[in-house]
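pasting for ref
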Amino acid sequence: MAPIDFRLKNIAEKGDSTMMGTSYGDIGFRETLERMKKYLAEREAPKARNCGRGVAAGLWFTVCLGSAAHVNVNVDGSIALVVGSTDVSGTRTTFAQMVAEEFGIPLSQVTVVTGDTETAPFSMISAGSMTTRSMGKAIYRACQDVKEQACQRAARKLGVDPEDVEYKGRGVRVKEKPDAYVPLTALVEENLMSPHAGPITGRGAGEMLPELTPVLAVHAAEVEVDEETGKVKVLSYAAAQDAGLAINPALVEGQMQVSEVPDPMRALTEHCVFSEGVMENASLPDYRMRTAADAPFIDAMLVEVSSGLPPYGMRGVGEPPLVPALAAMANAIQSAVGVRLTELPMTPEAVLEKIKGKSGKT
């Protein structure tokens, strides 16, 4: 049976039990497998005797921790977002996109200020697969706080009740009278000098979510194995992953590629050699870590199945690609030369030993 068809037949879906005894929420396993199946169907499989293709799937649970954010509206209508989260893989750009989307303004009008622990609102650690999700809720709520303040002030100016107005476009309008409209810039400028008013500053905080969000990644590797030396050459590599909502698709694809590039190589060479508690290959020449010159281009494919959790149904991105890479490489080697490696790294020596063992050579 084809590897992907086998997985589709035994798929985990919403409501199924996890290994921790909980139940899966919204999960994009089927969609991710089907995306990879379509990709592979469009590519001709390797036909050479010592070439093979391997497929593997990996699961990662991402978390959402508590953080806070401030949103300051400037007189010219630009927005300053203040956070305590450091930039991880372009997260400041993603934060700015959230703010621009909420207020209907160009991205160029949003500035992200990253403060330290003395000046910025509280932020949990900036780490893989959780930074955008953890800060996203705080940023979203800070934006809603600004909108609520703007609606309160616009309602007084327009002589209507606050529930009769809504934030739309780049300002506040009366729901039943779209022409009765006050731009956000006018509200800010006017309220700076008005009695009982002042600058508009929004605050938002996001709590830790008890739910662990599942993220599925499916990888496919194509390799060529030199049967005389055991050397493995990676011909191509592809990855499909459910990102929930890719706020910035280019950044998400880049993060997938950066996470994945080392792993096919790590499967083949990287190994810590210890003797009596001392690492004997602690230098880069001895550790044998491959470089970008050794890595293939990674075809990254985004799948977007909402996690069902605020804001925007996002999922983590950075760490899930680490899970299936090693298994995909092992499966590809087995497909190529018919030997199963069960230990890492899969060095030329290890591969050659398995090949000789299969043929009965010594």
